[in-house]
């Protein structure tokens, strides 16, 4: 299970830490309290929240007009396997990035809903790598 700080959530969602706190205070996004009182957010919960939020806001998830070599830090929202191939969906702020990679790469990277990942976009290729904290 991936646990994220409000600062990490803010960076992924493209909002301020105060916005993340408002989401949690209103009960829109669940948190867990550590022994020291700090809040953490479960990565899988964040993935579901961001997908629902983007759908509710009718966010434009296309990448038209962006130059090559863009990198999107986000959270894995879905992994679908089909034999040797897999599709990986990443929510990065309002952007939904989907990549077709090998199932072996999914295993090697430990990709699953709630895991932080980077999507590197160059021309028509989207490369996925496990994000370093």
From TrEMBL:
Keyword Plastid attached? no
Give the keywords, sorted. Molybdenum
Which processes are annotated in GO (biological process)? molybdate ion transport
Q: Which InterPro entries match?
A: DNA-bd_dom_put_sf (IPR009061), HTH_17 (IPR041657), Mo/tungstate-bd_C_term_dom (IPR008995), Mop_domain (IPR004606), Transp-assoc_OB_typ1 (IPR005116)
Q: Per the database record, which ranges form the Mop domain?
A: 65-130
* Top-rank taxon, per record: Bacteria
Pfam families named among the record's database cross-references: HTH_17, TOBE
Name of the protein described by the UniProt record: Helix-turn-helix transcriptional regulator
| Organism field | Iamia majanohamensis
